[in-house]
Batch of 4 targets.
Target 1
Amino acid sequence: MKVSIFGAGYVGLSFAACLAEAGHEVLCADADLARIEGLQRGLMPLHEPDLEALVAAGLAAGTLQFTADERTACLHGDVLFIVVNTPADAEGRVDLRHVMAVAAGIGRHRDREAVVVCKSTAPVGTADQVEAVLSGELSQRGAQLRIAVAANPEFLREGSAVRDCRRPDRVVIGSENPWAVDLLTRLYEPFIEDPTRQLLVMDRRSAELTKYAANAMLATRISFMNEMARLAEHAGADIEMVRRGIGADRRIGPDFLQAGAGYGGSCLAKDVRALRYAADRDGHALRILSAVEATNHEQKSRLFDLMTHHFEGRIAGKTIAVWGLAFKPDTDDMRDAPSLVLLERLWAAGARVQVYDPAAMPNARGLIGERDDVRWCDTAQEALQGADVLALVTEWAEFRRPDFAGIAKALRTPAIFDGRNVYDAAEVESAGIAYYGIGRGRSSLLH
Ligand SMILES: NC(=O)c1ccc[n+]([C@@H]2O[C@H](COP(=O)([O-])OP(=O)(O)OC[C@H]3O[C@@H](n4cnc5c(N)ncnc54)[C@H](O)[C@@H]3O)[C@@H](O)[C@H]2O)c1
């Protein structure tokens, strides 16, 4: 099938490459000319495991092509996916300009029937708006084309986007138009093993709300566990034991129960904010989500608070080694990363940082810029040299089994602040390093 994809970001590019791998003829468009020129030469604009090889294979096979020309993309596909960014402001108002710009472009250029699919995460009613913008453009030029608009939210996770595209837990198709449902069902066929379980067809508004409800639920689980972690700390219990204990219950399940330094990334925070804002505006205050956000806000300062306690308030002049900057492992995405809150708080308190991340250094450096109180390190080891203590913020695989004896030697006053609870406290302590985790019942004097 011929497919056009608008947006070559984390989602659009991964989706495009996977569709091409499955044999579809994919044209992926982006408004960012430099990004497209790079992609045409096989240069990746982002870090996502397995994606580079898949893009290269698609380019070589000719099933994947890139363009910055809106018209060409509007004319190519039988199905046209809108996968552009939908940022939300601090209050939760979602900016749909990019989505509507694509819709208007399709309305201006399209010369035959089409199924237009909104894959961007966007508030309930966005597909209706896309339809209105499209019809407006078509009627302005007197064109009468059969165009169906569907909502098809995406649930892939950065860091495993290719795997998630190839084997989705489920595909949600929001459309009551049999033609659109049939086309999308055929498009997704290569990725679906069990249609009764994985393929969910519903109306557009339910599909749009499903995406927000999913992210709100995931954020709620994390904030819930972070609250339990505070209680565990106070009560002398270990949240890691509690996590295993409740995760073994099939009604609860083991995923998204990690206590830590707060959730971040381009989706959870933005989508929770957007859902709460939209519900508030319509007079349906979502009290749970306000609490989820408040807890997460506080949680992002948790490592800093532990350090303040450790240094008895005297953080000025200290040097902190920071391992991990990206909002999660296996990505270079710095959007809403909890590391940024830690860095800001340390700098405001007069500390210096020595930072290292396996993939996010260029994005972090671009975001933060050069300053005297940060040293950008090439290795995890370099970040330790001459630092007072170590904070682990992102649990990349390369940080999971470190040489604790080496860490003890490199740090001036050996202490690890484990923001993701990946280390065994007893093992760390037996190397002569003080250990602080999140909710591990070892620092109950903190409260
Ligand atoms: N990143 C995730 O993990 C994830 C997961 C599920 C859903 N989503 C949703 O998917 C959407 C895309 O997210 P992302 O992380 O891929 O964003 P991104 O910022 O990585 O990529 C968006 C791309 O769209 C391009 N773009 C903007 N306007 C355009 C236009 N008019 N025409 C063509 N291209 C245009 C941008 O240049 C950019 O390259 C968002 O709505 C997001 O909420 C993201």
Note: The chain has two domains: 2-200, 203-447.
Target 2
Amino acid sequence: MINIINAKFITSSQNLSQCPDFGLSEVAFLGRSNVGKSSLINALCNQHGLAKSSSTPGKTQLINFFSAEFIDDEKKERSQAVFVDLPGFGYAKVSKSVQQQWRKNLSEFLRGRIHIRAFLHLIDARHDSLENDENLSEFMAEFIRPDQKILRIYTKADKLNQSGKAKIKAKDKNAILVSAAKKTGINELKEQIFNALYS
Ligand SMILES: Nc1nc2c(ncn2[C@@H]2O[C@H](COP(=O)(O)OP(=O)(O)OP(=O)(O)O)[C@@H](O)[C@H]2O)c(=O)[nH]1
Ligand SMILES: [Mg+2]
């Protein structure tokens, strides 16, 4: 089994040029506001309140970096990585110009941050074909490198019944269904992130 330990907040940055170089592989959490990015980081790291979450969309407004250690239980190997909690997109309660600035910062970061090895695209399991999620997939396809992976994570799976979950699996065979609230799918996700980073 893969475990994640010793997660710590490192720093926040406003845009790509302010981001420090940690010399470690990074995992970027992205998706619409309120989809559950910050909550998923907390579930993976088993630390409530590490990344700030809120029922009000638009909680995360900066690029937040966390360090964490992956432990491969069998091999007893430890590897350092960095988790990046990003502001969500589609948050309407700020002015047009602020929204445009966020969008620019986010796309610049996604394109330009060379340390990213895994993009975790979080999609609300109850709303799995929203236009802005499809736009994001197309946008990422334009610049993804061969050494980078995109994982599609369907969040808030606790809100779906069995047939709802089966529908997602039928539509997307690589779908990873998780619930930060009920801690389901979290171990599988740890394995997938580990594989994306180190294999
Ligand atoms: N039922 C359920 N609620 C969840 C789950 N994950 C997150 N939530 C709730 O969804 C809301 C948003 O969670 P956040 O983690 O703050 O979402 P975010 O994507 O970081 O949002 P922004 O920072 O605004 O982009 C909070 O009220 C969480 O408690 C889940 O697995 N199940
Ligand atoms: Mg957040």
Note: The first strand starts at residue 2 and ends at 13.
Target 3
Amino acid sequence: MRPLVATVDLAALRHNYQLAKQCAPGRKAFAVVKANAYGHGAPAAVECLRGLADGFAVASLEEAEQVRSVDASAKLLLLEGCFEPNEYAAAAALGLDVAIEGEAQLDALLAADIARPLNLWLKLDSGMHRLGFSADALRRAHARLQGAHQVAELNLMSHFACADERGNPLNEAQLEQFSGLLDLAFDSRSFANSAAVLTLSAAHMDWLRPGIMLYGASPFAELSAETLGLKPVMALTASIIAIRDVEAGESVGYGAGWVAQRASRIATVSCGYADGYPRTAPPGTCVSILGQRAPLAGRVSMDMLAVDITDLPPAALGDAVELWGNEIPIDELAQACGTIGYELLTKVTQRVPRRYING
Ligand SMILES: Cc1ncc(COP(=O)(O)O)c(C=O)c1O
């Protein structure tokens, strides 16, 4: 078997969910498990948080069906609402909470013949300008929904554009937009993604929507997950599958871009970009072997990468190599590659088996 595995620490996932809740005592929290629980495997994540999480949130009916097959009764929010009119009946059958983000969704809902009323989340475009009603349009939508037979709860939600940038004036502006609607009657309100859960208490409202923090990565460029008290959930671990010595002046890998400055020992490692390790990893990016850091040597290839282990004499064939996890924070790798932990986690490909521990 190819030695590459994404080990998912379910105890860390529970810890991080509880930490989100502790940030906002008395509030409830949807665990955001869209995109296959940010690459960790939605069925296992939902099973792990079942009974602990107040609810779950996903991006599509297909994702909702997957969650429902694990948890038949949890509150379950469709963050972008229904994409087609015929999805309302399915959403009702699954007992979903559904976002309504614009006139087209509202019209489709009010025309829908559904077996039971839905909990709706009117989505305010408070400044992200991606989805949602303007404040005035939301007031009109609220009025149209009063007394409609399709409606059970009527709730308010919005989403931050810059919550990961503390002090960004848009955060206050978005909060003001949201607060300006609170004279309307809503059953519940929801605004906070992970960054707002962690640093914007005015946005906590009734329901939090933490995503990335559950998986132990930081939404902030300048605040590490460890500083925030988060535990990494996924460790991506490969092995040394070959070792060779190269002379000074010899090159390693595609493009022959890495040239040994001294006689060097090179380990070939069983992970590449087809597994989700970023090909953009710059020179100097480190992996961890025997608890010590060792830098990449040359370009990441599809199934393998090379590491300079000259300064790590005990490293041997078969040794475990952590690409990210407890030793190499995913956010550190992401920043070096000009991306974010979200992208690395969601891009771990299907051929990498997930192994669950501490369930
Ligand atoms: C509407 C909505 N709410 C909450 C989240 C969770 O955000 P984060 O992962 O930054 O906590 C997302 C994720 O993109 C989202 O789209």
Note: The mean pLDDT is 98.
Target 4
Amino acid sequence: MSVDAPVRRHAPATSHLDQPRGTHPIELRGVRKAFGGNAPILDGVDLGFPDDAITTVLGPSGTGKSVLLKHIVGLLEPDEGEVSVFGNDIWRVPPVERYELRKRFGVLFQDGALFGSMNLYDNVAFPLRKHTQMSEREIRDTVMTHLAEVGLEAAVDKAPNEISGGMRKRAGFARALVMRPDVVLFDEPDSGLDPVRTKLLCQLIAEVHREHGGTYIVITHDIPSARTLSDYVAVLWKGKIQHHSAADEAFGSSDPFVRQFLAGAADGPLGMD
Ligand SMILES: Nc1ncnc2c1ncn2[C@@H]1O[C@H](COP(=O)(O)OP(=O)(O)OP(=O)(O)O)[C@@H](O)[C@H]1O
Ligand SMILES: [Mg+2]
């Protein structure tokens, strides 16, 4: 897809934080994080992720995108600031409530993070067996529905190492969806895939989102993926959100950094440092 291709669709309302608290399912306010006395990786991140929209978080390698994702899912605690999930500051609620809130997330990690010793069926069934009281018959219906949704119903008996990287990502996506999450996060869904598989996976993500709705957060540095998927675009660099807007506005931005980054150009304010 060329960088001039139209963006996915016009975004609803706004995604900014200048609205009452709790407007968006996920809100980060002034999030700051440093590791071991080093310069902060996140240095006052303010960002809202609206419901029923796909927000992509873009940024050069090593800027802290995965660190940001770990804050959203509650795996890392900010040094300062607040991560609010459905109106709850996740580090101010009791651990048991934080655990319950996490159940509303589906996460697709970079490599699919499947259990190597289990076939695809058991991988996708795992969250249901762990977190629900469903009978094996209900589990079967749910697992098969989601594997069919990602086109893997014929591969249920395969082990992760018997299938391609693209299939592993789709299986990971099925597992992320199986608890009917309100929020689905993807860390670089495109990594390790060729451009055609990347495009197909992005189309699948967009289709599933259209079907189920919810808050989707996609972390990537792949511009074509962002064009296919985004309702909103946030650009993270030097610890801060440098740009945050509806996708069409981001891709039409006159800001030199945003233009350079979204065009993948070598010339501009963004260097190797
Ligand atoms: N647990 C940790 N302890 C110390 N440093 C960390 C930790 N996690 C991340 N970092 C550092 O934070 C920085 C940002 O890392 P992060 O993985 O978030 O980058 P990224 O934007 O996801 O990059 P990429 O696009 O390559 O995946 C890196 O310098 C990394 O070494
Ligand atoms: Mg990363």
Note: The radius of gyration is 19 Å.
